[in-house]
Amino acid sequence: MTVQSPDDTAGTPVIQTAVPPASAAAPVGEPKIKARDVKVFYGDKQALFDVNIDIPAKSVTAFIGPSGCGKSTFLRCINRMNDTIPSARVEGSIEIDGADVNARSVDPVVLRSRVGMVFQKPNPFPKTIFENVAYGPRIHGLATGKVELEAIVESSLKKAGLWNEVADRLHQPGTGLSGGQQQRLVIARAIAVSPEVILMDEPCSALDPIATAKIEELIDELRSQFCIVIVTHSMAQAARVSQRTAFFHLGKLVESGPTEEMFTNPRDSRTQDYITGRFG
Ligand SMILES: Nc1ncnc2c1ncn2[C@@H]1O[C@H](COP(=O)(O)OP(=O)(O)OP(=O)(O)O)[C@@H](O)[C@H]1O
User: What range(s) does the ABC transporter domain occupy (predicted)?
Assistant: First the structure.
């Protein structure tokens, strides 16, 4: 299906979702990620207020909302990237498969291999294409030798839809690829350590429409294997790629639910106002 009026700024947008019926998109069984009463402070300033959400496995969940509403802050709680911001303090609990990510016993480096992250700007290492993908499996001891490492690199690049474009130049710098290819390389790098969750923070905002379409197709393919959470400014993109959507406003999670319902029949007037372009 197509989505009209990308980014929804002109008039009242009509957003068509390309997702299964709402019943098929509802979480089944235990959620992969369970957040309870999550609050985040930067110094004295509170950026997130009591966020409660269940995020299913093998599905794409989109976080939408106006600039500064806390989408990225919440995303960063899931793999403890907020630990790297000295002024940030996180309260409440986030569990992945029932285990608290903030428990003392959790090594953030190991957590981040289980919960990979893709940023707005593609950030390949200043190394070859091969080394970009091989680095994680090597440091986490996932390959017993060269042949196994090569197999992981190949299968990760294939899953990221990049193999055919780079198979004959694996030993050239990753930074020599186009922006869209670099973003797929970064996704291959995340996949290479067999994560369970992939967090994407506006992964297409630096890409042209063709590269964006490729990443969106890739997200759709990857959802059969991973729990994917994507922050996006584009409601059209949320509608195209996600099965569930969460709307944030002023640091609060206003509502979340099956994407189709969120865009056709939101429960909260703030969501309605946002999706119809009344603010944003
Ligand atoms: N490192 C930081 N230090 C201090 N305040 C921060 C920091 N990062 C974010 N904030 C503040 O926290 C609030 C939420 O920001 P956040 O980046 O999570 O929102 P967002 O919804 O992802 O925004 P955008 O869509 O513009 O990326 C904002 O008021 C922002 O200024």
Answer: 33-275
Residue identified by tokens 């197709």 is 217
User: E strands within the chain?
Assistant: 33-42, 45-55, 59-64, 88-96, 99-100, 115-118, 197-201, 227-231, 244-249, 252-258
Q: What share of the chain is helix, strand, coil (3-state, %, to 5)?
A: 40, 25, 40
Q: How far apart are CA 220 and CA 131, in angstroms?
A: 26
Q: What is the pTM of this model?
A: 0.90
- Indicate whether residue 256 lines ligand 1 (CB < 6 A): no
Whether complex ipTM tops 0.95: yes
**pLDDT average per 10 residues of sequence, the chain (280 residues):** 38 46 50 98 98 98 97 98 96 97 95 95 96 96 95 96 97 97 96 96 94 94 96 96 98 97 96 88
CA of 41 to the centre of ligand 1 (A): 10
Q: How far is CA 197 from CA 55, 174, 249, 275, in A?
A: 10, 24, 24, 27
Evaluate: CB of 246 within 6 angstroms of ligand 1.
no
Contact 94, 80 (CB under 8 A): no
The rounded Å distance from CA 48 to ligand 1 centre is 10
